Amino acid sequence: MVPDFPYDRLRRRPDVEAPNLQAHDATDVLLVDRGLALAAEHGISGAEVAVIGDEYGAITLALTDAGLAGIRVHQDLATGRRALASNAAELGLAGFSAHELDRSLLEGARLVLMQLPKALAELEEIADAVARWAAPDAVLVAGGRVKHMTLAQNEVLGRSFGRVQAQRAERKSRLVIASEPLPVPAGPPFPVTAQHDGLTLVAHGGAFAGAKLDIGTRVLLDVLGLGGSQLLKNGSCAAVPGPDGAAGRSSCGVVNAAETVVDLGCGTGALAVSYALAHPEARVIATDRSAAAAASARATAAANGVADRVTVMHDDAASELAEGSADLVLLNPPFHLGSSVHTGAATRLFEASARLLRPGGELLTVYNSALGYRAELTRLIGPTEQLARTPKFTVMRSVRR
Q1: Is the Cβ–Cβ distance between 232 and 388 less than 8 Å?
Q2: Sign of the dihedral defined by the CA atoms of residues 181, 182, 186, 191, in that order
Q3: pLDDT of amino acid 341
Q4: CA dist., res. 174 & res. 110, Å (int)
Q5: CATH code for the domain defined by 192-399
Q6: Which of 40, 50, 201, 301 could pair covalently with 307 via S-S, beta carbons 3.0-4.6 A apart?
Q7: pTM
């Protein structure tokens, strides 16, 4: 272990903080220890080290504190990038640089340290990038918690590296060392593209659901009148009252016209792009804290010919958008924080929606029915009613008080 590095001083902010959510784990410590040993053994400088998936900066900052200057780091989440900057300032550390998952991150890198991602597709894209752009003698050291690791991860690494060796588990974490990068195909494996009822989805490896249209998004698109899946045929639609309680319209198959629409946590951009296609007069903003998702949404907008009408932002809970700037927010919130099931991620997006919406503006939320968010939506946003329900998903309409 790196002597005296204050891992316990690291914070997750602006991400959700709770007693059971820490800013580092045993995998971070193992990666740092092995990284320093390999750097010393092979004469690897800090400028030849790349770090990928460092959630809150534990790996980057411990290596920097140990004297490796010039480390390049890629974090997918905007929250992680801000946490790294905040933790670095708190500890008085500098000398590293942030990059996207591209050539600038990996060119000339001889040592790559990585927290294993959950998705195999994301791992495949990263492994290909390392084999494609890093030095010919590059070594990739990937780590994870044993309970989340699978043989399939080794198989994915084996497509890009000639040697893949799993190490002995320590403190419920394990490292996998991949070396001897293999020749890569002419083009990278991502992004991928798929067609869905006239909608083209483009996805990088780290985007939720990939190029598929996830079930929750399908249900919300049906409620908006923009889907063709008919998932609601076994569900129900409610009547949406008009102004002052007057007779209204059916919630299914009718789109609320709005001047400014925000797809909050946009993923590959299915909701934002579908709305833009149906409403060319609307200003549509798609925002996600995942860089892979934001890149996918940009590509999806371009593939559907609406890149000039959909603004895509890589941001944490739309923090860069002005208060009261949205007429309609569309939300399919996550219920995981990393590998932990935690409703805090959804709560942060509900709070962001409350900030974004003008008085009288609407939030349409789709979520797993078992989560029961209605009371929280009413408390944070305003009057909330069920628009539709399937055996798995519920769509709620909340009006900003």
Answers
A1: yes
A2: negative
A3: 45
A4: 21
A5: 3.40.50.150
A6: 301
A7: 0.91
Domain boundaries, the chain: 7-181, 192-399
CA distance 27 to 25: 5
Q: What is the pLDDT of residue 242?
A: 41
Separation between Cα atoms, residue 23 and residue 157, nearest integer Å: 27
Tokens 């083009």 belong to residue: 187
Q: Are strands 49-52 and 111-115 parallel, antiparallel or unpaired?
A: parallel
Q: For residue 113, give the nearest of 37, 188, 189 by alpha carbon.
A: 37
Can you give the pLDDT at residue 344?
72
Same fold? 7-181, 192-399: yes
- Alpha-helical (H) ranges within 119-235 are 120-133, 151-158, 215-223
The CATH superfamily label for domain 7-181 reads: Vaccinia Virus protein VP39 (3.40.50.150)
Structure tokens at 169: 């588990």
Amino acid (one-letter) located at 273: V
Q: Where are the alpha helices (DSSP H) in 159-232?
A: 215-223
What is the distance between the alpha carbons of residues 217 and 177, in angstroms, rounded to a whole number?
38
Inter-residue long-range contacts of 368-375, CB under 8 Å, 24+ positions, other chains counted: 368/216, 368/335, 368/392, 368/393, 368/394, 369/393, 369/394, 371/335, 371/343, 371/346, 373/346
Q: How far is residue 289's CA from residue 295's CA, in Å, rounded to a whole number?
A: 11
